[in-house]
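Quick one, tokens below:
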């Protein structure tokens, strides 16, 4: 069922141009470029490790949205900088098919799983957290529901179901979305992260979205937060991927607050 539904899913996924990912800017030095082995399926994921200054208080995995720039998306908007200033090391990773990563094989949650294993190896005895944006947060949910590997989770612009998101944002494909829903019904249920949210093994979670996002409605964000036992923030005048631009400092502070709250709860 996964193989069949994955073919359908990739056919329906938004097409992106192939671009060469830029190296991190000088302001983010030092950093280390990595390749992460994909366990059980061969190939690798491209990633970058940004060490914390001095002794790290913990580490954060950052998973990007479905954009052609992949993990380079995090080179802007100050997320990496504020985390390092707070003492965290940062790992950014690409999904399969982006940057230097191998071609997709299976659901993209497996990429998150492999990246979390590297985070665990590099930071075995200090707090670990996850920060996922859009698809980066979406595909993290099934993993965090079964693995107790991070304490806190920060999610931006995460849809509860990618097929529902597509139904709203690309209505021309609705006949194929119906095929996906009813032909691969068990896969459709698995991809509903509202089913995974109540089981996230985190001590604190925060969801952020924009009030003008037609794919991720405010009610979606609030429901995911409620099911997770976390908190939600809806940013007025923001569209998809817009909250970080409209309320940059507030979102950066909210992420730090979430991770600190998770660490305090775990202690």
């Amino acid at each position: 069922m996964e193989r069949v539904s994955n073919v359908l899913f990739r056919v329906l996924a938004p097409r992106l141009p192939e671009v060469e990912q830029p190296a991190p800017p000088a302001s983010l030095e030092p950093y280390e470029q990595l390749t992460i082995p994909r366990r059980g399926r061969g190939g690798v994921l491209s990633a970058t490790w940004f060490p914390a200054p001095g002794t790290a208080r913990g580490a954060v995995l950052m998973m990007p949205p479905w954009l052609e720039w992949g993990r380079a998306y995090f080179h802007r908007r100050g997320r990496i900088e504020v985390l390092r200033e707070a003492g965290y090391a940062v790992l950014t990773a690409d999904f399969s098919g982006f940057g230097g990563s191998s071609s997709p094989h299976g659901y993209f949650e497996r990429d998150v799983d492999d990246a979390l294993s590297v985070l665990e190896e590099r930071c075995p005895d200090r707090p670990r957290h996850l920060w996922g944006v859009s698809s980066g947060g979406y595909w993290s949910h099934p993993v965090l529901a079964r693995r107790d590997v991070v304490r806190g989770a920060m999610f931006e612009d995460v849809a509860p179901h990618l097929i529902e998101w597509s139904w709203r944002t690309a209505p021309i494909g609705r006949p194929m979305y119906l095929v996906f829903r009813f032909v691969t019904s068990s896969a459709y249920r698995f991809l509903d992260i509202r089913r995974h949210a109540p089981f996230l093994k985190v001590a604190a979670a925060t969801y952020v979205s924009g009030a003008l996002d037609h794919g991720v409605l405010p009610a979606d964000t609030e429901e995911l937060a409620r099911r997770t036992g976390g908190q939600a923030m809806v940013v007025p005048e923001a569209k998809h991927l817009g909250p970080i631009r409209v309320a940059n400092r507030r979102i950066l502070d909210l992420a730090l607050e979430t991770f600190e709250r998770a660490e305090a709860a775990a202690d």
